[in-house]
Design goal:
Elements lengths: L1 H22 L8 H18 L4 E6 L4 E6 L5 H17 L3 H5 L3 H6 L8 E6 L2 E9 L3 H15 L1
Antiparallel strand pairs: 1-2, 1-4, 3-4
């Protein structure tokens, strides 16, 4: 009886050990290299266009990976860029979409409701977020899109 129990335990341990790696999926997240690509592309577009912006990049956990501000960009735009990226992280939606939500929902998410915050989606899941502020809302969003396109 003891031998059967020991054998069954050994078999169960073997099956559990070999099955676990197959269940672990590799996922892409925003890392420091990606964040630099995003900010570099965004700042290049902003420079060519004459905009003065801040760019904030968060990873899939909502941690700030990179924050870059251009010379001449307002201090407020740095706070707003981080707020836009955080809003996207908390809602899973662009800040332009959040602006269309009911005011009570906006308050519940402590949302920044100016366009310029976008999700970075990889294989249908949130890999990170980008927030840009300092130009018009449309320009901020264009800058964020350019940065994301450069990283993916």
């Amino acid at each position: 009886m003891t031998r059967r129990l020991a054998g069954a335990c050994a078999l169960a341990a073997l099956l559990t050990t070999t099955a676990a790696p197959a269940q672990i999926a590799k996922t892409r997240t925003i890392n420091a290299t990606d964040a630099q690509k995003i900010t570099d592309a965004c700042l290049a577009l902003a420079t060519r266009s004459g905009w003065k912006v801040h760019v904030a990049v968060l990873n899939e956990h909502g941690d700030l990976v990179r924050l870059v501000g251009m010379d001449g960009a307002s201090r407020t735009s740095g706070v707003l860029a981080q707020g836009k990226a955080g809003t996207v992280f908390r809602t899973g939606r662009s800040t332009a979409e959040v602006a269309k939500m009911a005011e009570t929902a906006q308050r519940a998410f402590n949302a920044v409701t100016y366009a310029g915050g976008l999700p970075v989606m990889v294989d249908g899941r949130l890999a990170g977020t980008v927030g840009v502020s300092g130009a018009t809302e449309a320009q901020d969003e264009e800058c964020a899109r350019a940065g994301i396109a450069a990283a993916l």
